[in-house]
Write a structure and sequence with these properties.
Layout: H1 2-5, E1 11-16, H2 23-33, H3 38-41, H4 43-46, E2 55-56, H5 84-91, E3 96-106, E4 110-111, E5 115-125, E6 129-130, E7 134-148, E8 154-169, H6 202-209, E9 214-218, E10 224-225, E11 240-244, E12 248-257, E13 269-276, E14 281-285, E15 299-307, E16 311-318
Antiparallel strand pairs: 1-5, 2-4, 3-8, 5-7, 6-7, 7-8, 9-10, 9-11, 12-13, 12-15, 13-14, 15-16
Domain ChsH2 C-terminal OB-fold: 244-304
Domain FAS1-like dehydratase: 8-145
Protein name: DNA-binding protein
Length: 321
Amino acid sequence: MTQIRTLVGTEYDRIYAWDAINPAMVRQWCEVMGIDNPLYTDEQYALTTEFEGIVAPPSMLQTWCLAGFNDVCAPGSSEENPYGVLKLLEAQGYPAVVAVNSELDFKRYLKMGEKLCYTTKLESISEEKTTGLGVGYFVTFIMTYFSTHNDGEEELVGTLLFRVFKFKPAARAESTPEVKQDPKPAAKVYKRPKPGISDDNRFFWDGCNQHELRIQHCTCCDKLQHPPAPICMHCQSFELDHKVVSGKGSIFSFVVMHYPEVPPFEHPNPIALVELEEGVRLTAGLIGIEPEDVVIGQKVKVEFTTYDGDLTLPMFKPVSG
């Protein structure tokens, strides 16, 4: 491993994008990902925004500089292989690989016509680690993306941290004799996970059991805050109690969870950031509405729902009219 570790810190030269950022690729990517933000596809709408035209979704960053068919890179790209270290690890007896995590950092939106390139740095190789998959090394790369200008200058537009685990697969346990199963085993019952309750938030969950939406209140500055905390986020006072609020509000933002499908939650699972009439926001599930019908600004009201006989949660449903 000594020779392999000498590669840590190596920076590999530029890989260039085949194509400039263009509306066709943006449209196709949005179609595949199920994104309908008009800022990315509607030129007339985008002209009315601060960007004065459509922009690319930030999470497309890695897409623009991918190699073509058969891993052919665009002209001018470096022929160095930054992932050669993985082949070296294979030669040391670590043949398997699994992606661990990927972290994208975006500096700004990218506009049509820009052309990108990126450099790669072998950031680190961990000490040998033992995991459930086997024994091996975590290898971390950092790709830095630039927008190239006609004058030869390059502007930093984002970074990508990518980590993989190169390992020797753990030996499988010897198979045990097959045990004859009940032809109709009882279905496993999944319950919703219960919240962590502490002295700081106990009042909130006690309120749910009483079908009251209780929000933490500072007696010094008379402001509300959520989620509950040991001190006031506004004036740092410890003099805190709670107020029962109306439970009425509107959807400030939302997501629809498709994967992973975790029982007993239904999927797709709409989750909203609700802005209450009293000015604070809280995250809660939505009920009584199809995921595709959720819109920002929609009026909602709390409805306390009990699951598994002992867990009462504040859910929100649309207000008719």
